[in-house]
# Entry
Amino acid sequence: MEISMREFKTHLSKYVGQAQAGLSIELTSHRKIVARLVGVPVAENTSVARLLAAGVASWQGGKPSGAALVLKSDGKLMSEMVQEDRG
# Structure
């Protein structure tokens, strides 16, 4: 489908919706095609969704927990390392 840039700007959401639905839209300027609008397919099964579906992972809607982060108290302070880096 060919439409002018002016028409596209006027009805932007309409044409973006059509592109999402699978229609390829060619934009014209002075009756010459200058761009093509093509929808991006929806990613149906992300890696997290696959883990949840396989039962490998579970989620009850809260913040993640389980990996306790322990910082060493005998190391250098970050501020000291930054000051050393600066010279």
Q: What stands out?
A: The chain has a mean pLDDT of 86.
